[in-house]
Design brief:
The complex is a heterotrimer. Chain A contains 15 helices and eleven strands. Chain A is of the alpha/beta class. The longest helix of chain A has 21 residues. By secondary structure, chain C is an alpha+beta fold. The chains are: A alpha/beta, B alpha+beta, C alpha+beta.
C-alpha cells in the first residue's frame, strides 16, 4: 500500500476508510522491510503503537492526524531517545520535546522513528554517524549510494516511502542536498522561522529546521505546522505564518527569476546544467521573467562557512563533557582527563576535526584573521542577496554539484566533501529560504534537484514556483 | 603549513580532546589543507565591512523576571552518568 | 596619611584594581526562569537551560538588564545603547555549557566613577572602567566525598554584574572603603542585596607594587574574596610578599592566586596551570542588546537618592562634617533611620549632630551587642526622636537618657511613658533643688569651710552629692547656679 500525499491519506482517515492503527501497521511493515538501508537510529514498534491510541482520540480536524512522520535524531524527543548520531549522547533520554516535534505531535502526527544523520549534522553523506551509513534507497544492490547529508536518514525515509514527511535541519545544505540525492522535496525556511528550541545545536547562527516530503504541497502543509514564533528562542522571528498550502499558485506572471552566473562552475556535469536550463524554460513558460544576475561573493561562501560553522560548533559542543548526560569514560583519574577521554572517545573523527578547526580560528591571535574575517565576508555574501532581490523575486540554481555518489567515495579528502555544499551554503549564510525539488535525472537514472531561493520569509513565493515546476515535471 | 604538532596538541588541550599520535598527524594534514583553502578569503577587501554575527534583523527579545520552577532535581539529574546525594559527581578536583 | 609600605630598602606603593562580582537582585536567572533563592536543596533550582541540556537556548531577563542600567547610573557611568553578549569558553565541572555568557567587547555600562571618604574629611575618586552582565557558575564541593567533586547547579546562570575599577586604589584600607562604597550604592539602588556572606558580593583583586613614580609592576590576581576583612588581609600579605621578592632582586610572576583564610597567605591556583585562552566570540544564540534611550531616561528618573547626595544634603542642611555624613549615609538603612528621626519632629533639625551621635554611638553599640540590624531596631526612630527632644528640653539629663535608651531597647516603650512611670523627669523646680543643696551643705560643713578657704575643686563634690540626692534628676545647670549662689552667701 502506498500513499501519495498527506491530503490523500488524510481524506482516507476523515472518511474512516483507514484507521490510524492500520496506518501504523503499514509503516511498521515497510520500515522492517527496509531495515538494511539503516535509515533509522531509533525504531520501536511499541512506541509507534502506543501513539496510536492517543492519536485516535484526537478530533479529525487535527491537520496531521495519523500522518506518519520521521524525525531527524537531532530533535530532542520525550518518548524516544536522542543521539545526534553520536556516541557521546549514549542513553540520553530527553525530558523535553523540541518545539518543532511538539507542534507536529499537537496536530496528531504519528512518529515512526528517529532517523540517521551525520554526527551532530556534520557531513554531507550520512557517513559520519556513530550508527553507520544510511544507504540511499535509490541505489541498486551492487552499488550502494550515499543519501546525502546531514539529514540523509530523513530524506531516505521519504524516498523509501517509510513516512509521508520528515523533519530535517539545514546548516549549510543538510536538507536541500540529501533531498536532491534522494529525489524528494526538501525545504530549508528562513533562519528564525522555526524555533531551534530542543534541537541539538551545530552552528547556532545557521541551523534551521525544515521539512522533507514527497511533493511541494505536502512540504507546504508541514512547514506551516512547524513554523512559528517561540519565546524560548531569542533568534526566533515573530512573523505571521501564511497558510502556504491554501495559497499555492502555479501562475508566475510578473515574477522575475534570477539566474546567477557564479553558479556555473567548472566540473559540473552537462546533465546538471541541462536540468537547470529545463527548469528555466519551464518557469518562463509559466509566465516568469528570467534575469541573469550576479552574486559576486559566491565563491567565498564555502570557506566562510567552514570557518563560522566549526567556530560555533566548537563552543556548542563543549557541553558534551560527560557530566550531565550521555557517555562518560570511566577510567579517568582527574576531571580534565575525564573530559579528554570522554570527548576523544565520544566524538567521531569529523566532529573532532571541526571542533579543533573551530577552536583554532577563535583562539588568541587568530580570531581576527579567521573568524572576524569570515563574519565580514558573510556580510558581503548576505548583501549580495539583498541587492539581487531588489531586481528579482526568486533565484534558481542547481541544488548539488552531482547526483548521489557511491558510499565512501569522498571520505578521504575533507575539502572535496565540503564542495558538496557549494550551491547550498550561500543561502545558509544569508539566512534566506531555499528548497530543492527533484527535476530531472542523470544518465544512471539518479535524481537531480533544482534549488529555488527566495527573500527572507518569502516561503510562499518559493512554494508557488516549486509548485509550478513540479507540475511541469510531472 | 599553518599548524605543527605542537599547536594541534595545544588546541586539542583547549578543546579537551585527547589525540593519539596518529590522530594528531592525520588531523595536522587535514587541518592544514583546510586552513590553506580558507586563506582565499584574504582576496576579499573587507576594510569597511561590519562583521555579521547573526542574520536576524529583529532585536533581542527580553522576558519578564518570573521564577517558574518547572524542573525537579530528579529530572535534571536523570541522564547524568554519575550522580550522588542529589549532586552531579565528577572525579575529584584539587584547587 | 601615607599609604607607602616600608621595605628593607625602599618605600613601596601598592597599586590595586578590583573586579567586583555583584549578584543582581532578581527573582529569576539571567537567561532562564529558574529561581535565584539562596540555600535551597542541591540542583533544585536548575532549569534545562542552566543544566545546558542539548538544544536549550538563553532568553534574557529584562529586569536584570534594568538593574545593570540602574547600577551604571548610580556609578555615574555611561550607559551603552548597544551591547553584545559573548561566550567565554572554558571547561570546568560547575560550568555546564562549557562557556559562560558574558560581555567582552561591548559591555552594557562604560566608564564611571565613585568617590571614597577618609576620616580626615578628604575624599578620592576611583574610576570605573566598565560594568557588564554575566552568568554565575554553579558550585563545586570538594569535601563531601574522598574521590569525587560534587556539583550543584543552583547558582548556575544567576545574573552577576562585574564592576571593574581602574588601578586607582593604593592601600588595603582604600580597597575596603571602595568596596563599602560600591556595596552602599548597590543597596541604595536595590540592585544587589550586598550580602557578602552568602556570596552576593565577591571581589577579585589585582595587585602590584612599585616605587612611587615608577611604572606599574607585574600584577597578580587574587580570586574570589568574599569579605572586606579578607580582602584587606590578602592585600597586605600579597604586597609584602611582592616587596620581599623585589627587594631580594627577584621578579614577580604574573599569577592567579587563592587566599587561604586560615593561614592568611596567598598561593597560586593549581588548576590554572595552563594558559587560558577563552576564545570570546559573540553568542550566536543571542542578538545584540539594544536599549532605547527612553528606557534609560525612565530609569534615570527612577533612581533614588544615593549616598553621595544624602551626604551632601547632610553637610549642607544639618551642618554635619563630611566624614560624619559619610558614616551615616554608608548604610542606606542607617541613613533612612537618621532621616526618619529628624523628620519625626521639626525641632530636631537643629540637633542633627546630636541625633547623629546618638545613632552612631549609643544605638550602634546596643545593636551590635545584640547583633540586630538597624532596620529591625527595637527603638523606633520616633521614640529616639522623642528621647533626644527630652534631653534638649531639659526634661531629662544626658546621663539619665543613656539609661533610658537601654530601657527602651528592652521594653520598646515610649520614653515619655517610662519617664512618668519611673519618675525620671528632671527636677527644674528651684525650691526643691534649694532644699537638696541646703541638706548637702549642712551635712558637709567641713568641706564648706575648706571650699571657702580656697579649695574651689570641691564644687564638683557638692554637685555630685546633690545630684545623687536628686537621684540624678536635678537639672545640672540649675543645680550649679544654686550651689554657687548659696556658697557665695556663706562667705
Amino acid at each position: 500500500m502506498e500513499f501519495k500525499s498527506i491530503n490523500q491519506l488524510k481524506s482516507l482517515i476523515d472518511e474512516n476508510k483507514i484507521s490510524v492503527k492500520e496506518i501504523a501497521q503499514t509503516y511498521i511493515k515497510k520500515i522492517k522491510e527496509k531495515k538494511d538501508l539503516n535509515i533509522f537510529i531509533y525504531f520501536d514498534e511499541d512506541k509507534i503503537n502506543n501513539q496510536v491510541t492517543e492519536i485516535e482520540k484526537l478530533p479529525n480536524h487535527k491537520k496531521l492526524k495519523g500522518i506518519p512522520i520521521a524525525v531527524k535524531d537531532l530533535f530532542c524527543t520525550k518518548n524516544m531517545p536522542t543521539t545526534a548520531a553520536s556516541k557521546i549522547l549514549e542513553n540520553f533520554n530527553p525530558t523535553y520535546e523540541s518545539f518543532v516535534t511538539q507542534k507536529l505531535i499537537n496536530e496528531g502526527s504519528l512518529f515512526v522513528g528517529k532517523t540517521n544523520l551525520d554526527e551532530f549534522a556534520m557531513g554531507s553523506a550520512t557517513n559520519t554517524s556513530y550508527f553507520g551509513n544510511t544507504i540511499n534507497p535509490l541505489s541498486n544492490k551492487d552499488n550502494p549510494l550515499a543519501p546525502g547529508g546531514s539529514s540523509g536518514g530523513s530524506a531516505a525515509a521519504v524516498a523509501a516511502d517509510l513516512c509521508l514527511g520528515s523533519t530535517g535541519t539545514d546548516t549549510g545544505g543538510s536538507i536541500r542536498q540529501p533531498a536532491s540525492f534522494c529525489g524528494v522535496v526538501g525545504i530549508k525556511p528562513t533562519y528564525g522561522l522555526c524555533s531551534r528550541w530542543g534541537i541539538a545545536a551545530f552552528a547556532s547562527s545557521l541551523d534551521q529546521a525544515g521539512i522533507f516530503s514527497k511533493n511541494v504541497t505536502d512540504a507546504s502543509i508541514l512547514l506551516e505546522e512547524i513554523a512559528g514564533y517561540d519565546e524560548r528562542d531569542s533568534t526566533s522571528s515573530n512573523v505571521s505564518i501564511p497558510n502556504y498550502s491554501k495559497q499555492l499558485n502555479s501562475k508566475l506572471n510578473g515574477k522575475t527569476i534570477g539566474i546567477p552566473k557564479e553558479y556555473t562552475v567548472d566540473g559540473i556535469s552537462d546533465e546538471i546544467n541541462a536540468v537547470w536550463d529545463d527548469a528555466i524554460k519551464s518557469l518562463e513558460k509559466k509566465g516568469a521573467k528570467i534575469k541573469h544576475i550576479s552574486l559576486p561573493h559566491t565563491k567565498y561562501a564555502l570557506p566562510t562557512y567552514y570557518i563560522i560553522a566549526p567556530a560555533e560548533a566548537s563552543s556548542n559542543l563543549a557541553r558534551y563533557d560527560g557530566v550531565k548526560y550521555g557517555f562518560r569514560a570511566d577510567e579517568a583519574k582527574s576531571l580534565d582527563e575525564m573530559y579528554e577521554i570522554t570527548r576523544s572517545e565520544g566524538f567521531g573523527k569529523e566532529v573532532k576535526r571541526r571542533i579543533l578547526i573551530g577552536t583554532y580560528v577563535l583562539s588568541a591571535g587568530y580570531y581576527d584573521a579567521y573568524y572576524l574575517k569570515a563574519q565580514k565576508v558573510r556580510k558581503l555574501i548576505a548583501n549580495d542577496f539583498i541587492e539581487t532581490f531588489k531586481e528579482c523575486d526568486l533565484i534558481l540554481t542547481p541544488t548539488a554539484p552531482s547526483a548521489a555518489f557511491p558510499l565512501n567515495e569522498k571520505q578521504d579528502d575533507p575539502i572535496k566533501m565540503y564542495l558538496n555544499d557549494v550551491f547550498t551554503v550561500p543561502a545558509s549564510l544569508a539566512g534566506i529560504p531555499g528548497i530543492s525539488i527533484p527535476y530531472g535525472k542523470d544518465k544512471n537514472g539518479l535524481p537531480l534537484g533544482i534549488q529555488l531561493l527566495g527573500k527572507h520569509f518569502n516561503e510562499q513565493e518559493i512554494f508557488n514556483a516549486s509548485f509550478a515546476l513540479e507540475k511541469d515535471y510531472e | 603549513m599553518k599548524l605543527d604538532t605542537n599547536t594541534i596538541n595545544k588546541i586539542a588541550k583547549l578543546a579537551r580532546i585527547s589525540l593519539s599520535e596518529k590522530e594528531a598527524n592525520d588531523l595536522l594534514k587535514d587541518m592544514n589543507s583546510i586552513l590553506d583553502w580558507v586563506e582565499q578569503l584574504n582576496e576579499v577587501n573587507t576594510d569597511s565591512v561590519e562583521p555579521l554575527a547573526n542574520i536576524s534583523s529583529s532585536t533581542l527579545p527580553q522576558r519578564k523576571d518570573e521564577a517558574k520552577d518547572i524542573n525537579s532535581s530528579d529530572e535534571i539529574l536523570k541522564n547524568s552518568p554519575d550522580k550522588l546525594e542529589g549532586y552531579f559527581a565528577v572525579p575529584k578536583v584539587v584547587e | 596619611m601615607s599609604n607607602l609600605i616600608k621595605g628593607n630598602k625602599y618605600e613601596w606603593e601598592t597599586v590595586i584594581g578590583l573586579e567586583i562580582h555583584a549578584q543582581v537582585k532578581s527573582n529569576s536567572k539571567l537567561f532562564s526562569n529558574s529561581s535565584t533563592a539562596f540555600g535551597s536543596k542541591p540542583n533544585s533550582q536548575v532549569s534545562l537551560v542552566d543544566a545546558a541540556m542539548p538544544g536549550m537556548l538563553p532568553v534574557i531577563n529584562s529586569y536584570c538588564v534594568e538593574q545593570a542600567i540602574k547600577t551604571g547610573i548610580g556609578l555615574k557611568a555611561k550607559i551603552n545603547n548597544y551591547s553584545v553578549f559573548d561566550r567565554k569558553n572554558y571547561f570546568y565541572a560547575d560550568l555546564p555549557q562549557g562557556y559562560q555568557i558574558s560581555q567582552y567587547k561591548y559591555p552594557i555600562v562604560g566608564e564611571g566613577k565613585v568617590s571614597i571618604d577618609f576620616k580626615d574629611g578628604s575624599s578620592k575618586d576611583i574610576r570605573i572602567v566598565r560594568l557588564h552582565l554575566e552568568q554565575d557558575a554553579g558550585k563545586s564541593l570538594h569535601d563531601q566525598n574522598p574521590t569525587k567533586t560534587y556539583v550543584d547547579l543552583n547558582r548556575s546562570g544567576v545574573a552577576l554584574m562585574e564592576i571593574v575599577s581602574e588601578p586607582d586604589i593604593r592601600s588595603a584600607d582604600e580597597a575596603g572603603l571602595y568596596i563599602n562604597k560600591i556595596r552602599s550604592i548597590l543597596m541604595y539602588l536595590d540592585t544587589c542585596d550586598g550580602n557578602m556572606q552568602e556570596g552576593s558580593l565577591r571581589a577579585d583583586v589585582n595587585i602590584s607594587v612599585r616605587i612611587p613614580g615608577e611604572q606599574f609592576g607585574t600584577r597578580c590576581e587574587i580570586k574570589n574574596l568574599n569579605s572586606i576583612k579578607f580582602i584587606k588581609q590578602a592585600i597586605n600579605y600579597e604586597a609584602k610578599r611582592q616587596i620581599e621578592i623585589l627587594e631580594e632582586g627577584g621578579t614577580i610572576q604574573q599569577n592567579t592566586l587563592l587566599f587561604n583564610t586560615n593561614s592568611g597567605k596567598t598561593k597560586p591556583m593549581r588548576s590554572k596551570e595552563e594558559a587560558h585562552d577563552y576564545r570570546y566570540f559573540p553568542d550566536p544564540d543571542l542578538l545584540p542588546l539594544e536599549i532605547d534611550q527612553k528606557i534609560i531616561d525612565k530609569l534615570v528618573n527612577s533612581i533614588p537618592e544615593l549616598p553621595d547626595e544624602r551626604k551632601r544634603k547632610y553637610a549642607e542642611d544639618y551642618n554635619l562634617s563630611n566624614y560624619d555624613a559619610s558614616v551615616l549615609t554608608a548604610d542606606k538603612y542607617v541613613s533612612d533611620y537618621f532621616d526618619s528621626v529628624i523628620n519625626s519632629d521639626n525641632a530636631l533639625i537643629d540637633s542633627a549632630k546630636i541625633v547623629a551621635n546618638w545613632i552612631t554611638t549609643e544605638l550602634f553599640s546596643l545593636l551590635k551587642e545584640k547583633n540586630i540590624e538597624i532596620s529591625n531596631s527595637p527603638i523606633s526612630s520616633e521614640y529616639l526622636g522623642k528621647l533626644i527632644k527630652l534631653i534638649k528640653e531639659d526634661i531629662i539629663s544626658g546621663k539619665i537618657a543613656k539609661d533610658l535608651l537601654i530601657e527602651m531597647f528592652e521594653s520598646k516603650e515610649d520614653p515619655e511613658i517610662i519617664i512618668e512611670k519611673k519618675g525620671l523627669r528632671q527636677v527644674t523646680d528651684t525650691s526643691e533643688i534649694e532644699n537638696i543643696v541646703d541638706e548637702v551643705l549642712n551635712e558637709n560643713q567641713k568641706m564648706v569651710e575648706q571650699y571657702l578657704s580656697g579649695k574651689d575643686k570641691l564644687l564638683g563634690f557638692f554637685i555630685g552629692q546633690s545630684m545623687k540626692k536628686s537621684k540624678g534628676k536635678a537639672n545640672p545647670k540649675i543645680l550649679n547656679d544654686i550651689l554657687k549662689l548659696k556658697l557665695s552667701k556663706k562667705n
